[in-house]
Amino acid sequence: MENPIETESEEQEQEQSNSQDSSTSSQDRHKWITEQDNLREKLITADSFTWKLPTISQIGAEDLRFVGGVDISFSKDDPSIACGTLVVLDFRTLQVVFQDFSFVTLSVPYVAGFLAFREAPVLLDILEKMKRSDNPFYPQLLMVDGNGILHPRGKCSTLYWNTLHKQSCTIFFSITICFGLACHIGVMANLPTVGIGKSLHHVDGLHHSRVRKLLEAKENSSKDFIPLVGCSGQTWGVAMRSTQGSIKPIYISTGHRISLQTATAIVQMTCKYRIPEPIRQADIRSRDYIRKFEMNARLKQID
DNA sequence: GCGACAG
DNA sequence: ATCTTGTCGC
């Protein structure tokens, strides 16, 4: 009888001997995996902060006040040119109180499961710059455009037949590695972070069909929260229907130093639209910034 | 071997 | 991520 834990080492690498794609070699993937493993040792998935969650009735000085949002937009002219953006919102008013941008040329490609190695460096730079300057608006919590622990890396798994749902499922073991962009930024910046996914990253038997069924089962309320419980029994995050009648939910997961419960509550309070306001503002302003940059580049061409 | 694969 | 058109609603 095989011990299922032994499948742990079956980290299957696709050998890319293709010389064209030097930037995603298996050596790179190996380095990335090791780095994720190391950073994950510092991951905290429970509430770990000094501020408090404001209540409707009373406002305290120690309440959460400054919530950040980060996003990256790309040039349509040159896809390697990107604009990293950090915004900070006042949690009470949801108004933007700080914004900063940074242009970069990205050499690391997007590889599913390794988004952080492409996007985190720019965003961490902007955060670090803000912290260095002792800016009073430095965020107490950061929302990230991408997942937290809802992340499929390191499939230490086995297939089994789930008679209840009449489908085959993948069991994950405790050694499962889950460390998305939000975790990566959270640990590196030592900041509470929440991951916001706009589409579902398949983990532990969680597929669109399964989530859709769970959503349809709760049609009465305007704001729904569906725990994303995988076949193994682990809760990876929450699917949230943030807008009334919206078919497409957002996917919330713990990044760092926050529990899923607290994260969900805060995201709900910042949702004027489908996407929570810190992420939405970062996205809008980032696009705007790169659009103006491209307009300038066009004008210079004419000269 | 094939499909799937956050942004 | 980005490319796309119109359309509905305030």
UniProtKB/TrEMBL annotation:
Question: What is the protein name given in its UniProt record?
Answer: Endonuclease V
Give a yes or no for keyword Zinc in this entry.
Answer: no
Stored InterPro entries: Endonuclease-V
User: Per the UniProt entry, what species is this protein from, by scientific name?
Assistant: Pisum sativum (Garden pea)
Superkingdom of this protein's organism: Eukaryota
Does Hydrolase show up as a keyword for this record? yes
Its main localization is cytoplasm
Report the leader peptide range: none
Q: Where is the composition biased (Low complexity)?
A: 15-26
Gene Ontology molecular function: RNA endonuclease activity producing 5'-phosphomonoesters, hydrolytic mechanism; single-stranded RNA binding
- A Pfam family annotated for this chain is Endonuclease_5
According to its record, what are the GO cellular component terms? cytoplasm; nucleolus
Provide ranges: composition bias, Acidic residues: 1-14
